[in-house]
Design goal:
Elements lengths: L4 E5 L4 H12 L3 E6 L17 E5 L5 H11 L3 E4 L8 H4 L1 H22 L4 E7 L22 H20 L2 E7 L2 E2 L8 H13 L6 E3 L5 E2 L2 E2 H13 L6 E3 L5 E2 H11 L8 E3 L17 H7 L7 H15 L9
Parallel strand pairs: 1-2, 1-4, 2-3, 4-5, 5-6, 6-11, 7-10, 8-13
Antiparallel strand pairs: 9-12
Helix pairs in contact: 1-7, 2-4, 4-5, 6-8, 6-10, 8-10
The structure holds NADP nicotinamide-adenine-dinucleotide phosphate (NAP) and guanosine-5'-diphosphate-alpha-D-mannose.
Length: about 325
């Protein structure tokens, strides 16, 4: 049995599912923390049933975290659980802060109590940069978060840095820029667009309503980004890294690419709906991952175009029909 044991919080999420696959491939014993729900939420990890051990705990409940650590006895903890949808953070700002901010402290305290030799990964976010003074952003760019989610993540980020410096924990933050996949939640813009394009192509819908088409993001493939998490915990020194592709695209570019892939004209189907425009926006997020490339040897493998096409194709397939798409 492997002496590498990993506990993943948020294992039922997009990143948790890819990370669990990667760690299993690397020979780890994988434990996943799940919160209790009245219906099943483990669709993304259904194919890993029997290979990962699920433990019930919640970032809101300190004792449950201690219990999960005592049961799993991990050598590494990946803290991916969070309220991760930015618009929800204006509707539930306190809950977002509890999950995505203070929840990090609860986990760090549990680690100090159970086993301070655990290596800890915190899922920090480019959303912390918000209103940016420079582009691209790197590890030294100051934070000016533009959403309650970004503020909560900045707290989670700095408490991780602080526990590393205060208690000499091996605790690192990955400042990850947007990363996507066919497993992305349907409410995020990439998936909303690829699902929308596929529905319109199949005659299941005629219109796609979106918010700010001018926002720019640095979008990569989730499978590439979870590899960086593992590399950070294997590195000899605990330090924080930006993980990004370095390419920026607007939401409009994304729409054009997805619709082009299914041979449709977005002008005929995409409408701007103020309901999806945010009170404050991060207008331009694009990352400089040269530190991760240099020190970890990390490189993304899937391009923006490949990722968008992969997502559109997966949505076409899921919605019931395989189309031989030629454009
Ligand atoms: P996701 O798909 O929304 O998954 C979030 C996970 O957190 C789910 O497994 C969810 O469980 C769990 N969770 C939420 N609240 C919890 C609680 N109180 N206790 C226990 N579990 C809880 O998010 P993701 O895209 O995989 O992102 C993973 C992490 O990276 C998040 O922290 C996110 O903020 C951060 N991040 C993501 C990106 C990105 O572009 N994807 C970029 C930077 C940072 P349920 O299934 O029960 O809801
Ligand atoms: N969701 C959504 N829906 N976003 C839209 C829409 C829409 O209809 N129309 C335009 N957008 C714009 C948003 O205003 C934002 O500028 C951009 O599309 C991306 O939105 P999301 O896909 O919701 O992602 P996000 O950038 O807000 O947050 C994601 O990335 C962060 C890293 O920067 C999430 O995964 C966060 O958890 C993550 O930390």
């Amino acid at each position: 049995m492997s002496d590498r044991r990993a506990l993943i919080t948020g294992i039922t999420g997009q990143d948790g599912s890819y990370l669990a696959e990667l760690l299993l491939d690397e020979g780890y014993q994988v434990f996943g923390m799940v919160r209790r729900a009245s219906t099943e939420s483990s669709e993304r990890i259904a194919h890993l049933a029997g290979r990962v051990t699920l433990l019930q705990a919640d970032l809101l409940d300190q004792f449950s975290l201690v219990g999960a650590l005592e049961e799993a006895r991990p050598t590494e903890v990946y803290n991916l659980a969070a309220q991760s949808f930015v618009p929800t953070s204006w509707r539930q700002p306190v809950l977002t802060a509890e999950f995505s901010g203070v929840g990090v402290t609860r986990m760090l305290e549990a680690i100090r109590m159970v086993d301070p030799s655990v290596r800890f990964y915190q899922a920090s976010s480019s959303e912390m940069f918000g209103k940016v003074p420079e582009a691209p952003q790197n590890e030294l760019t100051p934070f000016y978060p533009r959403s309650p989610y970004g503020v909560a993540k900045a707290y989670g980020h700095f408490i991780t840095v602080n526990y590393r410096e205060s208690y000499d924990l091996f605790a690192v933050s990955g400042i990850l820029f947007n990363h996507e996949s066919p497993r992305r939640g349907l409410e995020f813009v990439t998936r909303k667009i690829t699902d929308g394009a596929a529905r319109i192509k199949l005659g299941l819908a005629d219109e796609l309503r979106l918010g700010n088409l001018d926002a720019k993001r640095d979008w990569g493939f989730a499978g590439d980004y979870v590899r960086a998490m593992l590399m950070m915990l294997r590195h000899h020194e605990p330090t924080d890294y930006v993980v990004a592709s370095g390419e920026e695209h607007s939401v409009r570019d994304l729409v054009e690419l997805a619709f082009e892939h299914v041979g449709l004209d977005p002008e005929r189907h995409v409408r701007v709906d103020p309901a999806f425009v945010r009170p404050t926006e991060s207008d331009r997020l694009v990352g400089d991952a040269s530190k991760a490339r240099r020190e970890l040897g990390w490189e993304p493998r899937v391009s923006f175009r490949e990722m968008v096409e992969m997502m559109v194709d997966a949505d076409l397939a899921r919605l019931g029909e395989r189309h031989d798409v030629t454009v």
